[in-house]
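Students often ask why inverse folding is considered easier than folding. One informal answer: many sequences map to the same fold, so there is more than one right answer. In these notes we will look at a single instance of the problem. The structure comes first.
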């Protein structure tokens, strides 16, 4: 009986929790994958979960994680999906960290593994970012960034290679 109470309380807490990162991204992957053979009602339920989670985190106003983007692993969002805009046709590597208010424009760009995007940073269309790069707060990326580079300022300048 105690096990049943623990499972019920865990289920209840998950229902009221604002943002469950692992669950959100797992269900998003099922919803956007056209080759997935899950039943349509299950996909619609998962879509409802995603939309409910977005609404609780005020993501309806300004957040857009386009379904055309490919993530090797779900990105880590330390502040939740608050104001993050990711365009379509982008390829993301593993262990990408994206803080709030980041905009990554569409256009076929590639983002490497272990990249960090600081709060408010912007990436213009078609720019490639190398593995291990760090994009500082409010930096605007206007050119391709090499591996392990650190980028700062409004017109991005590479300060460390």
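Output (designed amino acids):
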């Amino acid at each position: 009986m105690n096990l049943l109470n623990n499972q019920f309380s865990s289920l209840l807490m998950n229902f009221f929790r604002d943002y469950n990162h692992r669950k959100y991204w797992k269900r998003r992957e099922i919803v956007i994958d056209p080759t997935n053979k899950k039943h349509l009602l299950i996909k619609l339920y998962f879509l409802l979960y995603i939309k409910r989670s977005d609404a609780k985190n005020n993501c309806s106003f300004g957040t857009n994680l386009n379904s055309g983007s490919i993530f090797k692993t779900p990105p880590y969002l330390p502040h939740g999906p608050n104001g993050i805009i990711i365009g379509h046709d982008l390829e993301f590597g593993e262990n990408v960290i994206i803080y709030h208010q980041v905009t990554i424009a569409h256009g076929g760009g590639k983002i490497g593994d272990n990249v960090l995007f600081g709060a408010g940073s912007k990436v213009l269309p078609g720019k490639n970012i190398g593995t291990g790069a760090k994009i500082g707060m409010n930096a605007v990326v206007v050119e391709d960034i090499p591996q392990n580079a650190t980028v700062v300022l409004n017109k991005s300048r590479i300060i460390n290679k």
